[in-house]
Amino acid sequence: MWTLWTEAEHLGAWHRPSAAFGPTYATVDLRPGGSYRMEMLDPAGELHATSGTYVELDRPHRLSFTWRWDGSDHDTLVDVRLSEDGGRTRVAITHTKLVSQAEADRHAEGWIGCMSTLAATYSTA
């Protein structure tokens, strides 16, 4: 699971809020202080991009990074914790420093979509 979150090829395969979005283009400089960028097309063909900086990396258990949508004037913080659970990996995402409940709701919906896309892309059923 760590690799799926930290390598550009894998991020590009699943990191989007729904299958209706086009593939994500990702770049990753995986080190504390390193940056990432992700770009994706929505169903109408509009580009959405986010970028940030890796704050903390504790392979294979935790990664923390800032998050900023292009055009936004504030960073938020995403903390991802990965834990083994009976041969599967449990993923816990905490997204903080959001400025409103509406923004929190949009991000929650987006993360749920991302996790659904991840599961569909890498299902080992």
From TrEMBL:
Coiled coil: none annotated. It comes from the Bacteria. Residues 2-121 form the Activator of Hsp90 ATPase homologue 1/2-like C-terminal domain. It holds the Pfam family AHSA1. Belongs to the AHA1 family. This is Activator of HSP90 ATPase. The lineage of its organism: Bacteria, Bacillati, Actinomycetota, Actinomycetes, Micrococcales.
